[in-house]
Design a protein that fits this description.
- Helices cover about 40% and strands about 30% of the residues.
- The longest helix has 18 residues.
- With about 140 residues, it is α+β, with helices and mostly antiparallel strands.
- The strands form two sheets. A four-stranded mixed beta sheet has the order 3-4-6-5, covered by helices on one side.
- It has two domains: about 50 residues, Ubiquitin-like (UB roll) (Roll), CATH 3.10.20; about 80 residues, 2-Layer Sandwich (Translation Initiation Factor IF3).
- The two termini are about 50 Å apart.
- It contains four helices and six strands; from the N terminus they run αββαβαβαββ.
- This is Translation initiation factor IF-3.
- One of its GO terms (cellular component) is membrane.
- Pfam families: IF3_C, IF3_N.
Length: about 140
């Protein structure tokens, strides 16, 4: 329609039995359309619901280990970790120390660095291994 005064645009919308909706208020001059406001709101609501449905919620899965873990147990944990990465989830690796194990924290660090090396192809380190109290933690995210 081109540039039309507001009162004329309102009259045109009223004659059509529709609403005058401001589409781009920041442009010069502001852009308006004559349409059904209820239908516009409904369409926007459906579009937002569809976007929410499609988004992936990233979960943080936790794998707990001990510093003196056996090789087979380690392999089982790594298999589970790979499955989590395929699903697109982050993995928090927790290493718990008990009693005298606290004297050998280097074993725990060595184990977490091994996990880091084994998952290097499919995951990146989000939080480096660090000691918090009696446990050492590291967070990995899929690439």
């Amino acid at each position: 329609m081109g540039s039309v005064p507001i009162d004329q645009a309102l009259r045109m919308a009223e004659e059509a039995g529709l609403d005058l909706v401001e589409i781009a208020p920041n442009s010069e001059p502001p852009v308006c359309k004559i349409l059904d406001l209820g239908k516009l709101k409904y369409a926007n609501q459906k579009k937002a619901a569809e976007a929410r449905k499609k988004q992936k919620i990233v979960e943080i899965k936790e794998i707990k280990m001990r510093p003196n873990i056996d090789t087979h147990d380690y392999e089982v944990k790594m298999k589970a970790m790979n499955r989590f990465f395929e699903d697109g989830d982050k993995v928090k690796v927790t290493l718990k120390f008990r009693g005298r194990e606290m004297a050998h924290q280097e074993l725990g660090m060595k184990l977490l660095l091994q996990v880091k090396d084994d998952t290097q192809a499919i995951a990146k380190v989000e939080a480096e291994p660090k000691l918090e109290g009696r446990q050492m933690m590291m967070v990995l995210a899929p690439k």
